[in-house]
Please model this.
Amino acid sequence: MKQLQVIVAGGGIGGLSLALSLHQAGIAVRVYEAVRDPSPPLGVGINLQPTAVRELTELGLGDLLSASGIATQRLNLCNKFGQLIHGEPRGIAAGYRWPQVSIHRGRLQVLMLRAVRDRSGADNIRSGLRFSGFEQRGDKDVVRFIDRDSRSELTDEADILVGDDGIHSAVRHQLYPAEGEPRFAQQILWRAAIEAEPFLDGQTMVIAGHFHQRIIVYPIGKAESGKLLTNWNCQMTVPDQAPLREDWNRQVEKKKVLSAFGGWRFSWLDLPALIERSSNIYEFPLVDRDPVSAWTFGHVTLLGDAAHPMQPIGGQAGSQAILDARALTRALIETSEPAAALARYDADRRPTMNDIILRNRNLGPEAAMQLAEERAPNGFSRVEDVISQDELDVVAKSFAAAAGLDVETVNHRPSYLSP
Ligand SMILES: Cc1cc2nc3c(=O)[nH]c(=O)nc-3n(C[C@H](O)[C@H](O)[C@H](O)COP(=O)(O)OP(=O)(O)OC[C@H]3O[C@@H](n4cnc5c(N)ncnc54)[C@H](O)[C@@H]3O)c2cc1C
Model:
């Protein structure tokens, strides 16, 4: 039988997961990435939920992940004064068989890129080539790319095209030409990663504040200095801000961040000091897109942020891209006809992802912080006087279960690809 050929447009977390997964399944894959040299680490912190760490472990990357990131053991939700509202165990401490890994997104991308090169061959990861269009001719996809430097056009042909080219996906644009720009949620994020002394136990992620102004801080790796590489995000409502195009490289002056968060100094964390010491602070609008009614069109489909760009609530965009990659690989193994396999993948993943996009617009576990702000804007002496344990449990559990992230589901679901 002739070997199936797959082209992936986009070598981000999802595209690289797909390349590794297809290689594991014996399916030929070529990844085209617009950036010429993806090796300088791009981005700041990203969280991988246990369900995704399980997949990367089954792809043989578990040890590398542990060495590069931090196994987060706890999530604390606090008010804007740093008072604890709710703390819960995460990862192994919560009973998962796999850890939650907080890691520098660029380090993750580089370790995955190396694995793809080693396993599939450097020829099959082609960088500096931007997807520009496709045609379905019979049972083939003819795909066009533009060379970033020479501006020349190159074509390639395969049985399947997967668009994993991010929130501004050009593949999605060809499928949905009238869609327009992402939806701006009138919130802005400022973010950086910096070496710092550990806070709390060095394995805790903290979200503090409320819907209109909050911070998310967590360690993402060990630094040579013995300190921890620490990710901080400041997020706030900006009602009058015109939509900004998201650009992972746009920087902002620290005085702008300090003017809003300069007073956020807690007994366990001096946020203004972290901001002061950060040399590169990135600005990013909070955006997503409305769910679409199909990802798959014949033998072309979407994956990751191209398929379901979501607000970063519950830290799962990267994890869900990894699960997409595994689900798509399984569909290709179990269904012999490519278009039928892609239709199966779409039916399997899209309804849940569409639900998460809409849920994320309404806050996830952070809803507890908003309740505390509304009921006790000046802080509290006893959190039980403000919010009950039952209310906290409902908020935390309903979100995890809807996203397929609860302990039972993750630990007991069958492997996507039996080793
Ligand atoms: C530079 C960068 C930094 C990021 N930093 C963070 C972060 O710090 N924290 C966080 O939580 N999330 C971050 N993200 C988003 C996060 O990686 C995704 O939400 C998630 O991992 C899903 O991955 P994805 O592969 O679907 O999309 P992405 O990771 O966005 O990857 C898409 C890839 O497609 C490439 N691409 C775009 N257009 C084309 C085209 N026309 N042809 C070929 N290739 C194309 C991009 O260069 C990119 O490598 C970042 C994304 C990028 C691109």
Notes: The radius of gyration is 21 Å.
